[in-house]
Amino acid sequence: MNTAFDFSKFEQGRTVYIRPVKVADLPEDMRQHAGGSEELYAVHASDGERLALVKERNLAFILARQNDMSPVTVH
């Protein structure tokens, strides 16, 4: 869950989408790293590719903004 990701290759669109993800819906290897959380927040590129998973909604927005992206909520 603490793996660095190079966001710079996603220059085609600066909008990313933040949405909640149930830990139970994730693959087993990812659930093991959820630290007991029942819900995480995913950051997705405009083409739907998941770029990151974080524990808190605020953190997802901070991560996006620190990488010069414009986050919006999706539900």
UniProtKB/TrEMBL annotation:
InterPro entries linked to this entry: DUF1150 (IPR009531)
Protein name: DUF1150 family protein
Source organism of the structure: Roseivivax lentus
